[in-house]
Amino acid sequence: MPLVVPGITTNSAKGDKSDWVNKLMGKKISDSGSNEISFAKKDLPESHRVLKPGDMKTMDHNPDRLNIHLGEDDTVQNVTYG
Predict the structure, then answer these.
(1) Into how many domains does the chain fold?
(2) By CB neighbour count within 10 A (0-12 exposed, 13-18 middle, 19+ buried), where does 38 fall?
(3) Record's InterPro entries (predicted)?
């Protein structure tokens, strides 16, 4: 069985991390529409989770799941897959 390293040796249709970084960094996740300071939840991939500081999270690895890490001010600080 070959070694599979998510994001390096896999090529899925989820999109590139840098695309999501460019779209989300510094913005707030909103239930309504997207604009200069917010991004609509409805425009995120189906497999995603928004993580606030101190949130509990599962440790299962899902290479297609977009993880959106918020800061204390609820703006996006980091984006990862897993």
Answers:
(1) 1
(2) middle
(3) Prot_inh_I78 (IPR021719)
